[in-house]
């Protein structure tokens, strides 16, 4: 009889929770304003829904590729598809991309906390404290990271639901109008903007080597993506219902401002935006932790001889440094847009190319067998 | 942390070890007695009773024991009297047998008798309360178990009071404790594995488990770690705990200790291992996870609804004990906007006279509380209560009137203290005390954000922590929702028909509802 915890793999359930934990982060805090500023009335949900379905498609492609090479690292299976040197370049680029995402997350968190939590504390202190916690998390076991997601995600979702329910008192249904007035260009723009909130789903390409049942990965990842898609639409509509389209588009972080308008029943606490943002820190943390971990994983697969802790110690100052580059709000948003664009061009392209090559190869080998 | 188990063997032992004697027994009785006396330095409590065999002056024998460690009546009735009979008996016995065998078969009426061949066997026996019979011309000795001496009677444990439940607690004697365990768990598959612990003072340690329930890997791991123990003496099971725990850097206890035999036996049936040490009423239970620490044996003795509510109350208490002072600091000093305006104003009014910032105020009060707790613990019960009254009422009230702390702070600290005492495990309570300080420091620096960062760090630590291979956060995460029936909730008894999934027990079901 084997001991339950002797081999540390990721179960379906853990992967199912890891994907929404990965996606839900800082993006949703500013998402409603980005969507509202390019669409008319409450039309943003269409773009969000289509973006969500697109993400499901992309993650399905990635999962399909990854699951056809069970228990293999990204580097080793991509080397089989597109020769070793190309695979090393792709892996390295992904690592750089993930490091940038980590830096962006940490910077964004520092920036929002400056807006809502502290007026005096320098943003660098907040960023550093947060980065150290992330470093502590990634230097533990990889299974531990997945267990953390399980502990944190329910809390985040519960807080989101509570804010939604409490704000129902101040909702105004007339804010939903006008409906279906946005032109195609606006929808396309909305589609692009919402992508920022899905950065990092490429982690699925890397984590599959630890998954217990690789066969279930495509199904499980689609279920995982559904959670943030629903959450995003609910949060967006919630903001529109409370602030209206114009109000929402004028705010930087309407989701946090939503919490500002809400009082706990019985007058226990008022203006809970500080509390909301504090809890949301957990969501940002799970994102940053997993992206950072995947960056380490990618580098580990390239530089096999270097110890994990050395990679972490080398990357941490780098992440901090990249995070401090943007000087103001505009630059931070710009930074985010670069990341989103590069994900569109690079991450998705790689996924599609790998999928096609895998299909063709498979077809070829099947054909040979048939002969 | 685990390195301890492997690296130890490489250390050269430089110090002079205790004088021991591996030599076998001499055929000369006098030489043996002399050697024994010399090794023990002829103490007063060593009793050597000589006798003649068959009234033959050349056939001498000795009964040796340590006064005070033996059961006097037993030695008197079953050894010394029989020896007298034997000495005066002129019957002839089977000559093919040695005189010791004859004695063993015909005259010793005690159940547990063994044969020893070396001086050390005899010496060790004498030191734990056994009686040794040495015969002139024989190179072996009879070692008879006559352990006795003064011991405490079975009482209700004072550290773990229950309203409803058996009033039986372990005592200092290992034999009695094993019997108590057998009494409360009447199954043939209850197993006891005995180890000897200690370089100089040899203590017996028993690993108890229910075969067929516990996962064999856990028993193997427990035994392996116990075999790695190398200390002079283990006066209390806490020494064992600290030797074999997974991480000595963790603030969390990774094993539970209890004085209650009913708790020990019910944990055995949950697939856990109980470690009993001679000389202490506290037994260890391993592996133990966070969820287990917030359970109390009493939860099962009351009806399920009450059990469930008590569990929820306990989780709330744990939250308060950990976070209340830090939340006070964060809300008052950094986020007053969160409080309702009226409340914020009234708090500000009461704090107007207080010269310190909330952090200093909170630390002052927490320190006072810790001092009161420590002082009350060490004093005899009647004075302890006085300390409680003096400390709690007088100092609290006076501090407020003197304007050193605000009344809200006193409420917060009072609530924290009460919540801390509501945690069923004392060891977990101590880790909460440590973490509370960490939360307060973080709240003083970064407010709510600091609290959440420390919370995340505690969680990171916990998901990486294991207790004998079992994740500390199981069954929360890794999620085993089947075990949630008996975690925060305590489902009705008829539903709790499975042993905990996270313990990976061999026998999964502990009952069934289908029985006619």
Automatic annotation (TrEMBL), chain A:
- Kindly state which keywords UniProt assigns to this record, in alphabetical order: Germination, Membrane, Transmembrane, Transmembrane helix, Transport
Where does it reside?
Membrane
Q: Where are the transmembrane segments?
A: 21-39, 45-65, 86-104, 116-138, 150-171, 191-210, 222-244, 274-297, 309-326, 338-358
Please give one Pfam family short name: Spore_permease
**Record carries keyword Membrane:** yes
A GO cellular component annotation here is: membrane
Question: What name has this protein been given in UniProt?
Answer: Spore germination protein
Organism in which the protein naturally occurs: Gracilibacillus halotolerans
From TrEMBL, chain B:
InterPro entries, A to Z:
Spore_Ger, UPF0353/GerABKA_families
Give any Gene Ontology cellular component.
plasma membrane
Protein origin, superkingdom: Bacteria
Membrane topology note: Multi-pass membrane protein
What compartments host this protein? Cell membrane; Membrane
Give the UniProt record's GO annotations in the biological process aspect: spore germination
Q: Which residues cross the membrane?
A: 312-334, 393-422, 434-458
What keyword terms does UniProt attach to this protein? Membrane, Transmembrane, Transmembrane helix
* One matching Pfam family: GerA
Q: Spell out the family assignment given in the record's similarity comment.
A: Belongs to the GerABKA family.
List the protein's name: Spore germination protein
Q: Which organism is it from?
A: Gracilibacillus halotolerans
């Amino acid at each position: 009889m084997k001991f339950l915890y002797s081999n540390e793999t990721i179960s379906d359930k853990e992967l199912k929770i890891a994907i929404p934990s990965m996606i839900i982060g800082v993006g949703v805090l500013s998402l409603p304003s980005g969507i509202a500023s390019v669409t008319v009335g409450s039309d943003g949900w269409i773009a969000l829904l289509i973006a969500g379905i697109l993400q499901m498609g992309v993650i399905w492609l990635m999962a399909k590729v990854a699951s056809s090479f069970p228990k293999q690292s990204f580097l080793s299976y991509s080397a089989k598809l597109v020769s070793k040197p190309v695979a090393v370049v792709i892996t390295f680029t992904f690592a750089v991309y993930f490091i940038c995402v980590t830096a962006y997350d940490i910077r964004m968190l520092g920036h929002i906390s400056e807006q809502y939590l502290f007026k005096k504390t320098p943003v660098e202190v907040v960023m550093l404290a947060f980065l150290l916690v992330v470093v502590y998390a990634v230097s533990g076991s990889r299974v531990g990271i997945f267990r953390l997601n399980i502990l944190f995600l329910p809390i985040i979702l519960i807080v989101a639901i509570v804010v939604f329910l409490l704000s129902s008192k101040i909702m105004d249904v007339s804010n939903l109008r006008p409906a279906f007035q946005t032109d195609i260009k606006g929808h396309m723009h909305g589609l692009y903007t919402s992508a920022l909130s899905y950065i990092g789903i490429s982690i699925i390409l890397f984590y599959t080597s630890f998954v217990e049942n690789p066969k279930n990965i495509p199904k499980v990842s689609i279920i995982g993506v559904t959670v943030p898609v629903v959450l995003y639409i609910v949060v967006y509509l919630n903001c529109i219902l409370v602030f209206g389209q114009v109000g929402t588009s004028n705010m930087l972080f309407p989701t946090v401002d939503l919490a500002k308008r809400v009082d706990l029943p019985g007058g226990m606490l008022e203006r809970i935006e500080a509390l909301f943002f504090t809890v949301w820190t957990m969501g940002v943390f799970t994102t940053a932790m997993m992206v950072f971990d995947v960056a380490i994983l990618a580098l580990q697969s390239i530089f096999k001889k270097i110890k994990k802790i050395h990679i972490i110690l080398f990357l941490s100052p780098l992440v901090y440094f990249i995070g401090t580059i943007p000087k103001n709000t505009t630059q931070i948003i710009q930074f985010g847009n670069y990341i989103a664009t590069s994900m569109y061009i690079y991450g998705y392209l790689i996924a599609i190319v790998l999928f096609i090559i895998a299909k063709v190869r498979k077809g070829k080998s099947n054909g040979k067998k048939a002969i | 942390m685990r390195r301890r188990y492997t690296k130890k063997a490489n250390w050269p032992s430089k110090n002079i070890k205790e004088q021991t004697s591996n030599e076998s027994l001499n055929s000369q009785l006098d030489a043996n007695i002399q050697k024994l006396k010399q090794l023990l330095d002829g103490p007063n409590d060593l009793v050597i009773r000589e006798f003649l065999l068959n009234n033959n002056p050349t056939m001498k024998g000795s009964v040796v024991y340590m006064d005070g460690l033996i059961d006097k009546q037993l030695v008197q009735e079953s050894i010394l009297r029989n020896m007298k009979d034997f000495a005066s008996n002129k019957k002839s016995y089977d000559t093919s047998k040695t005189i010791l065998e004859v004695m063993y078969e015909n005259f010793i009426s005690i159940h547990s008798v063994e044969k020893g061949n070396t001086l050390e066997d005899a010496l060790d026996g004498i030191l734990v309360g056994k009686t040794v019979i040495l015969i002139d011309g024989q190179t072996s000795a009879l070692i008879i178990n006559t352990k006795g001496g003064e011991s405490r009677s079975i009482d209700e444990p004072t550290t773990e009071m229950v309203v409803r439940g058996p009033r039986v607690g372990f005592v200092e004697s290992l034999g009695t404790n094993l019997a108590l365990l057998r009494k409360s768990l009447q199954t043939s598959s209850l197993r006891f594995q005995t180890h000897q612990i200690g370089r100089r003072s040899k203590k017996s340690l028993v690993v108890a488990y229910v075969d067929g329930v516990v996962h064999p890997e856990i028993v193997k791991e427990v035994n392996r770690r116990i075999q790695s123990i190398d200390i002079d003496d283990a006066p209390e099971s806490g020494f064992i705990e600290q030797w074999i725990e997974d991480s000595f850097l963790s603030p969390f206890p990774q094993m539970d200790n209890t004085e209650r035999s009913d708790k020990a036996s019910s944990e055995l049936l949950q697939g856990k291992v109980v470690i009993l040490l001679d000389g202490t009423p506290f037994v260890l239970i391993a592996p133990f996870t966070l969820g287990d620490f917030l359970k109390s044996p009493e939860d099962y003795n009351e009806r399920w609804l009450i059990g469930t509510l008590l569990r929820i109350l306990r989780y709330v208490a744990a939250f308060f004990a950990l976070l209340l002072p830090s939340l006070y600091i964060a809300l008052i000093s950094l986020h007053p906007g969160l409080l309702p305006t009226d409340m914020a104003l009234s708090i500000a009014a009461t704090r107007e006279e207080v010269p310190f910032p909330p952090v200093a105020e909170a630390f002052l009060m927490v320190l006072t509380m810790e001092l009161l707790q420590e002082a009350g613990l060490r004093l005899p019960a009647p004075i302890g209560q006085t300390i409680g009254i003096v400390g709690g009422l007088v100092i609290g009230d006076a501090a407020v009137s003197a304007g050193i702390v605000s009344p809200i702070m006193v409420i917060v600290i009072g609530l924290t203290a009460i919540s801390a005492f509501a945690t069923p495990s004392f060891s977990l309570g101590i880790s909460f005390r440590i973490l509370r300080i960490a939360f307060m420091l973080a709240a003083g620096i970064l407010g709510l954000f600091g609290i959440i960062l420390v919370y995340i760090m505690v969680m990171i630590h916990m998901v990486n922590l294991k207790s004998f291979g079992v994740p500390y956060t199981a069954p929360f995460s890794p999620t085993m929702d089947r075990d949630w029936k008996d975690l925060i909730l305590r489902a009705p008894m008829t539903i709790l028909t499975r042993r905990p999934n996270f313990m990976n027990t061999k026998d999964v079901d502990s009952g069934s509802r289908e029985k006619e």
